[in-house]
Specification:
Distance between the termini: 46 Å
Shape: elongated
Largest sheet: none
Number of helices: 7
Radius of gyration: 21 Å
Number of strands: 0
Structural class: mainly alpha
Order of helices and strands: HHHHHHH
């Protein structure tokens, strides 16, 4: 039972994430680095682990940027299509009549851009689980991606746990930089 995009397309599904995997991942993230020994250990990590964590953060931030761009384009599409329906009876026009309207080019352009962005976002999503998250920033970025993947309407408890875990980690990372865990 996966989350569904709210597009009206029945086969548009997000990857399924089990509750057990979700809880395990957030627990490890929240409790694994929330101790002084883990915080101290993270500073002695091998350079390769730190590079992988930086890469994970970069993948997540790129995914979030693409996802935001997709959202903006989808909103533009919806507004334009709604206007065309109201002002030009878009749904009652034949495909050739629709193509004759100058605004159809913008819809077609948005479609092409969205196809490209969907592919890029999917490739990034495939890379995220394979990259290490050994810093607060990387874990917070990964949780931000999960927060976008899980629809609050479909899984309110899971979405709330992810959002709260991300907020808690942001607070913990701020505390860490102020010496709460000690040096």
């Amino acid at each position: 039972m996966g989350s569904r995009r709210k597009t009206g397309v029945e086969d548009a599904r997000l990857p399924e994430i089990s509750r057990r995997a979700l809880i395990a991942g957030t627990s490890v993230a929240a409790f694994g680095l929330a101790s002084p020994t883990a915080a101290a250990a993270s500073t002695s990590l091998a350079p390769a682990a730190l590079i992988a964590s930086t890469e994970a953060t970069r993948h997540c931030k790129n995914w979030l940027a693409i996802d935001a761009q997709i959202g903006r384009l989808q909103n533009r599409w919806a507004k334009l299509e709604g206007w065309l329906i109201r002002e030009h009876s878009w749904c009652n026009l034949s495909p050739s009549e629709q193509q004759a309207l100058p605004w159809s080019k913008e819809l077609k352009d948005i479609d092409g851009i969205l196809d490209t962005l969907f592919e890029r976002r999917e490739r990034l999503l495939e890379a995220i689980p394979d990259s290490a998250s050994v810093s607060f920033e990387a874990i917070i970025a990964r949780l931000a991606v999960l927060e976008r993947l899980i629809w609050p309407e479909d899984h309110p408890e899971a979405h709330a746990m992810i959002a709260r875990s991300r907020q808690d980690l942001i607070a913990l990372s701020a505390d860490t930089h102020h010496g709460v865990f000690g040096a």
